[in-house]
Design goal:
It is a single chain. With about 210 residues, the protein is an all-beta fold. About 0% of the residues lie in helices and about 55% in strands. A hairpin with a 7-residue loop joins β3 and β4. It has one helix and 17 strands. The strands form six sheets. A five-stranded mixed beta sheet has the order 9-15-14-11-12, with no helix packed on it. The protein starts with a strand and ends with a helix. The radius of gyration is 23 Å and the shape is elongated.
Length: about 210
């Protein structure tokens, strides 16, 4: 597991050197070190493929609770799902709003999740959530369709994902797209997990990071 500090626990490493002299107290020197795993995204070929998530929701009419409107469709797509610190994450968002409810705005958030797993005194887990980048985009009126092209930036100095390599402490990242609708109706959400690595994906001999950092 990586070196880390959080609300629910910490993982740290050190080198300890002990000098054992007969008939004297043991002398020790300790050197703290930081462990960060190197992750080459190209070892996971599926990260090079587009990823799409979509969801729909229908809304009741106030005066006829048993009657539902036509659906509101929210679809979000990214061209690939592996990124490195400093890269841009391009996001395509499509609304097909056949309902009677207006989408006031679209909130796009890049979140980091730190999950700590405990075995004592009982099996449990705690999750810390961090907002890493945020965009507020336009919405979609009732009976209209719209397509948005937005991007989020992965912050510098970000630890790689490690969901598959550590059982005790896991780092993961997700893009959350929220369609904020008129009150009192409930909002619509889509989540797209992404992987953060140390070395960027390579497409046709060119590093993808070169195309998405400008």
């Amino acid at each position: 597991p990586y070196s880390t500090e959080g609300k629910y626990g910490e993982i740290y490493y050190m080198i300890k050197v002990s000098l054992d002299i007969p008939h004297q107290l043991l002398k020790e020197i300790r050197f703290p070190i930081t462990v960060i795993r190197y992750e080459d995204l190209n070892t996971k070929p599926l990260l090079k493929y587009p990823k799409r998530e979509e969801t729909t929701k229908t809304y009741c009419f106030f005066w006829m609770c048993c009657l539902e409107s036509s659906p509101l469709l929210l679809k979000a797509t990214i061209p690939f799902s592996g990124f490195t610190p400093g890269q841009k994450v391009p996001i395509s968002i499509e609304f097909n709003n056949q309902s009677h409810v207006n989408v006031k705005c679209t909130k796009i958030t890049l979140k980091g999740l730190h999950t700590f797993h405990f075995e004592y005194p009982s099996n449990n887990k705690h999750v810390e959530k961090y907002r890493l980048d945020y965009k507020l985009a336009m919405g979609c009126q009732a009976k209209k369709s719209i397509k948005l092209e937005e991007f989020l930036r992965v912050p510098e100095m970000l630890n790689p994902s490690n969901e598959d390599t550590c059982r005790v402490f896991q780092i993961s990242y997700v893009i959350k797209i929220a369609a904020i609708v008129d009150d009192p109706h409930t909002n619509l959400f889509v989540y797209i997990p992404i992987t953060i690595g140390s070395f960027p994906l390579i497409f046709k001999g060119t590093s993808q990071v070169d195309e998405n950092t400008t």
